[in-house]
Design brief:
Helix content is 33%, strand content 29%. By secondary structure, the chain is of the alpha+beta class. The chain has one domain: RelE-like (YaeB-like fold), CATH 3.30.2310. The chain has a five-stranded mixed sheet. It is globular.
């Protein structure tokens, strides 16, 4: 199976690189280069306006880390966001993070349109 090209939106790559090494390896392997794999652990589809966006998480003794991406835009994997979940209460993705993901999804779509208009 051919690997899809990967595009990192905004600070997603920088954020991932700030995570502990073991977390970087797990999240990086799970999404890049095989974002279309079916056996990714802890993969959660987002809903509503974020349909088609996937979130994976990795726990470490320092906290829970999440990486959000989509494979629904052309033949490109767009990594939208990487962040550490701060709250120890509940599993829901915080509203501020969801808003940022929605903004970056719009940016990814615009980027893809620009690239395909050439």
């Amino acid at each position: 199976m051919a690997l899809k090209p990967v595009e990192w939106v905004s600070s997603a790559r920088t954020n991932l690189r700030a995570f502990p090494q073991a977390v970087q390896r797990e999240l990086g392997f799970a999404t890049v280069p095989r974002a279309d794999r079916r056996d990714i652990p802890e993969r959660k589809p987002l809903h509503g306006s974020l349909r088609g966006v996937l979130e994976i998480s990795e726990n470490d003794r320092s906290g829970t880390y999440r990486l959000v991406y989509t494979v629904q835009i052309g033949e490109v994997v767009y990594v939208l966001h990487a962040f550490q979940k701060k709250s120890r209460h509940g599993i829901a993705t915080p509203r501020a993070e969801l808003d940022l993901i929605a903004q970056r999804l719009r940016e990814a779509r615009q980027d893809y349109e620009r690239q395909t208009d050439r």
